From TrEMBL:
This is (2Fe-2S)-binding protein. It comes from Sphingosinicella rhizophila. It comes from the Bacteria. InterPro entries: 2Fe-2S-bd, 2Fe-2S-bd_dom_sf, 2Fe-2S_ferredoxin-like_sf, 2Fe-2S_ferredoxin-type, 2Fe2S_fd_BS, Beta-grasp_dom_sf, Diverse_Oxidoreductases. It holds the Pfam family Fer2.
Length: 187
C-alpha cells in the first residue's frame, strides 16, 4: 500500500508500487484533469505539484512519493479563481486545451517560487509542449498572473463557457440537477 496526500485528502493506493502517479490519479482517483500526453515526460500534459514542485506525473511511481503532498489542477482552486487560471482566461490562452492543465500547474509552481519571472526564466521553467503554439499568450498570461499575485493588477475574468458566473465562485459539486432558473433559460 502506498500512502500520500492528494488534494488535501489522505489516500492509499492498493496498486503496484511502480504504477506511475498519472495512472493512480486518473484511474483510481478519477482526477482526469491530469492528462496523458506522451508517457515519456516530454510534453508536460501530466504536470502536477508534488510538495509544491512541478513534476511530470507519468515519470514518478507512487512508491517514490510515499508521504508526499500532491496537488492536481482540480485543487489549484475549486472555483477557477487562482491568478494563473484567471490570467489564462483573460489572455485567451487555450485553443484545443489539452495541454492547459499541465501548463497551468507548471506556471503556478514557477510563480510560487519567482513572483516576477523574466522571459528567460519562464522559458527555462515551462518546458511543456503546446501543440497549438500559444507560447506568446502563455508567457503573457504568466507575467499577468505574477502581477496579480503581487497585487499590481486585478483580473475579473469570466468563468469558462458553460459555467454560470454565480456558480463559479461556489464550492459545490460540479454534477448536480439544474436549478429552476437554469431550466427556464433552456426552455
Amino acid at each position: 500500500m502506498t500512502r500520500f496526500t492528494v488534494n488535501g485528502q489522505p489516500v492509499h493506493y492498493r496498486m503496484d508500487p511502480e504504477t506511475p502517479l498519472l495512472w493512480a490519479l486518473r484511474d483510481a482517483s478519477n482526477l482526469t484533469g491530469t492528462k496523458y500526453g506522451c508517457g515519456t515526460g516530454h510534453c508536460g500534459a501530466c504536470t502536477v505539484h508534488i510538495d509544491g514542485n512541478a513534476v511530470r506525473s507519468c515519470q514518478v511511481s507512487i512508491a517514490a512519493i510515499e508521504g508526499s503532498f500532491v496537488t492536481t489542477i482540480e485543487a489549484l482552486s475549486r472555483d477557477r479563481s487562482h491568478p494563473v487560471q484567471q490570467a489564462w482566461v483573460a489572455e485567451q490562452v487555450p485553443q484545443c486545451g489539452y495541454c492547459q492543465s499541465g501548463m497551468i500547474m507548471a506556471a503556478a509552481a514557477l510563480l510560487a517560487r519567482k513572483g516576477n519571472p523574466t522571459d528567460a526564466e519562464i522559458d527555462s521553467a515551462i518546458t511543456n509542449i503546446c501543440r497549438c503554439g500559444t507560447y506568446p499568450r502563455i508567457r503573457e498570461a504568466i507575467r499577468r498572473a505574477g502581477r496579480v499575485i503581487s497585487g499590481r493588477e486585478r483580473i475579473s475574468a469570466a468563468p469558462p463557457p458553460g459555467v454560470d458566473p454565480e456558480d463559479a465562485a461556489r464550492e459545490v459539486p460540479a454534477l448536480r440537477a439544474p436549478s429552476a432558473a437554469h431550466k427556464r433559460k433552456g426552455s
